[in-house]
Amino acid sequence: MSTESANNLKAVDNQNVPAPVELPTPGNDVDVAAQENYFNRELSQLQFNYRVLKQALDTTHPLINRLMFCCIFSSNMDEFFEIRVAGLRQQIKYGRETLGSDGMMPEQVLGEISRVAHEYIREQYDIINNVLIPEMEQENIHFVRRREWTEAQAEWVRRYFDEEILPVVSPIGLDPSHPFPRLVNKSLNFIVELDGKDAFGRETGMAIVPAPRSLPRLVRLPDDVCNGGDNLVFLSSMIHAHTDELFPGMEVKGCYQFRLTRNADLELEDDLEDLASALRGELLSRRFGDGVRLEVADNCPEELVHFLLREFGLTERDLYQVHGPVNLTRLMAVGGLVDRQDLTYSGFSPSIPRQIRSKESMFDAIRKRPLLLLHPYENFSPVVDLLRQAAKDPQVLAIRQTLYRTGADSEVVEALMDAARRGKEVTAIIELRARFSEAENLELASRLQEAGVIVVYGVVGYKTHAKMILIVRREEGKLRRYVHLGTGNYHAGNARLYTDYSYMTCDESIGDDVNKLFQQLTGMGKALKIKKLFHSPFTLHTRLLGLVEREAELGPKGRIIFKFNALTERELIKALYRASQAGVQIDLIIRGICCLRPEVPGLSDNIRVRSIIGRFLEHARVYYFGNNGRPEVYGSSADGMERNLLSRVETAFPIEDPALIARVSEDLDTYLADNCQSWVLQPDGSYIQNQPAEGESRLASQLVLLERLTGK
C-alpha cells in the first residue's frame, strides 16, 4: 500500500472551524488517554457538515448539484439539532451530564456548537443569495420574488392562492381561548401582526399561520405568464402576498416566517413487552418534542422574536435569524421542477461483472468464485437477482435476511414475499428503530407478515445493523448455504447514491457463521462460537483491537488502513495511537466524525486522516491490515464508534480471495491518491482540502472508480 505526503496541500477557507485546542507536547511519553488528544464528537460532526456545504462552491460539480449540496447541509443540520443538540440538552435538563473524552461538558459543547453553527449558517445563506441564485439567473432559472411579479404572474398567484392554499390553510388567532398552537417539528409557519377587531370584537394583535404541509414549498410558474426560462416561486411568498385574505377586515401589519426544530430522538425502555406498539406511540410524540432551535426571518421585529423564544423555552443561543427561506432543504425540489440535464451530473449505467453476465444462475456463478461488488459503480441488481432466483428455485428451502433501511415497496421485499408465498421458510429480522425509518419499517413488517414471512424485531437494546442474507439450497442431496454480506443497506435507491461493498459467497465456514448469527437473533441462548466473522457486541471490538496490536508488534513494517464513516471509540483510538508510536503507517479514510488527533509528534506522527466528499456518499467500511506482507481485508457494517462496536449487532467479514484482496487494495489506493475531493484533518482540528501540486493532474477518486468500473 502506498502512503502519500501532504506536501501538495493547499489551504482553503478555514475561518469557520471550532476553536483549536492546544497540542500535546512532543515526546515519546505522550499519554494516549489525555483529554487533549481527542476531538469533540459533536464539533467534528459540524466540521463534516461544513465540508458538505463547501461543495456548493466547487465549480467542478454541476450547478444544480451544487444547490443540492447546500440542501443536504440543511438536512444534516436538521438532524444534528434533532438528535445531537437535543441529547446534550436532555443531559442538562435531567442532571445526567457526562464528560466527553475531550474533557468538555455538555453546556460548554452547546456554547461552542452555537458559535460555530451560526457562522456556518450565515455562510450558507451568503452562498445561496450571492453565489448560487445569481449563477442560476445566468442559466435562465429564476426564483421570482414578490416585488418582481408581473401583473400576469401576480394574477396567477392570486388564483393559485384562492384555489390551492386558502381552502387548506388554518390561521390561528392568539387569545385566551386560542392559546399558542403545538406546531409540528420543522414545519413552515408565519407569525402575523394584526390591527383591528374581528367579527366577534376580539383584538388579539397576533396570529399564527401554519403553512399546509400537503402543499409544495416551491411552485413553477406557467410558461404563458413568463418571458422564457424556468420561473419558480416560493409558497411562503404566496402566503406573504395574500395574508390579508386570511384575516378579512383586519390590517396585517407584518408577516414573518419561522420554523421550530424539536427533539426527534426516540426513548424506548429496554424491558418492553411489545416493541412495535411502543414505537408507534413514540413516533407520535416525535413531532412535538422539546424545541431545540428557532429559525426566523431576519426582518422579524425583535419583540416577536422574543415572544417566540419564550413560547418555545429557548434562548438567543438557540435563535437563527436567516436572510431567505427558513427551510432551504425544500430547494431540493428544483431538480424535479427544472429540466436542465446540462446542469446536473451526467448519467451512467452501473456495470455488472463479467462473472455473472452469462445466463447461468447466481448460484452457479457464486459456487465458482466469491463475488464482490462496489456500488453504485457496479449494479445492485445481482443482489436482487439472487433473492428472486432463490424465491423461484425449487431447490431453495429457506431464506433469512436482516432489514435496516429497505423501503416497503422495494424489489428485495417483493422477492421475500414471493418466496414465502411459494412455501419457502422466509425469516426477516427488521430493525424497527432505524432512525427516521421507523414508520416505514413498521409498514414493511406488516406487509411481510401478510405474505407469510416470519418477522422478528431483533434484540431489544441492541439495534440489528448487520447486513446479511442466508439462502439454504439443496444440491446433490446436501444442503449448501449461500450468503450475502454488505457494508450498506438493502435499499436500491441508496445503492445508486452510496458507495458500499456487497460480498457473495458459499464458503462453508462463513455460511455456518451467518447461520449461527441468525440463530442468536431469532432464538435465545449463549453466544455461539463463530469461525471467520467478527460480530458485535461479542467479538468485533476485541478482534479489531487485537489486529491493530498485531500490526503494532511489527513496528515500521506494520500497515493499517481503515475506511469508516466515523471514528469515536476511545479504546480503538488509543490502540491506533500506540501503533503509531510503534512506527506503524496508518491511513484513515473517514467521511464524517473523527475524534482522533492525527500527526501529533510522539503520539500520532504516522497517522493520516482524510475525508472524501463528492458526488456519492462514501459509506463502505473496510479494515485493511498489512500482516507483514500477507494482507488481511475485512468488509463491515460497523464504524469505529462505541454504538457499533459495543451495543449493536454488527458483522465484519473476511475477503479471502487473493484477486478480491488486490481489488479492494487498489480501491483504497485510489482514495489515498485523491488530490481534489479529499480533505485532510490537521492536528489542530481544522481540515484542508487537497489540491493538485503544480504540474500534477487532478485525481478525483470517485471519478477514477466510475471510469474504471463503468467506462464513464
Automatic annotation (TrEMBL):
It holds the Pfam family PP_kinase_C. One of its GO terms (biological process) is polyphosphate biosynthetic process. Keywords: ATP-binding, Kinase, Magnesium, Metal-binding, Nucleotide-binding, Phosphoprotein, Transferase. InterPro entries: PP_kinase, PP_kinase_C_1, PP_kinase_middle, PP_kinase_middle_dom_sf, PPK_C_dom2, PPK_N_dom, PPK_N_dom_sf. Catalyzes the reversible transfer of the terminal phosphate of ATP to form a long-chain polyphosphate (polyP). The lineage of its organism: Bacteria, Pseudomonadati, Pseudomonadota, Gammaproteobacteria, Pseudomonadales. ATP binds at N76, Y498, R591, H619. The active site is at H465. One of its GO terms (molecular function) is metal ion binding. This is Polyphosphate kinase. An intermediate of this reaction is the autophosphorylated ppk in which a phosphate is covalently linked to a histidine residue through a N-P bond. It catalyses: [phosphate](n) + ATP = [phosphate](n+1) + ADP. Residues 153-333 form the Polyphosphate kinase middle domain. Its cofactor is Mg(2+). HAMAP family: Polyphosphate_kinase (MF_00347). Its EC number is 2.7.4.1. GO terms for cellular component: polyphosphate kinase complex. Residues 38-144 form the Polyphosphate kinase N-terminal domain. Belongs to the polyphosphate kinase 1 (PPK1) family. Mg(2+) binds at R405, R435.
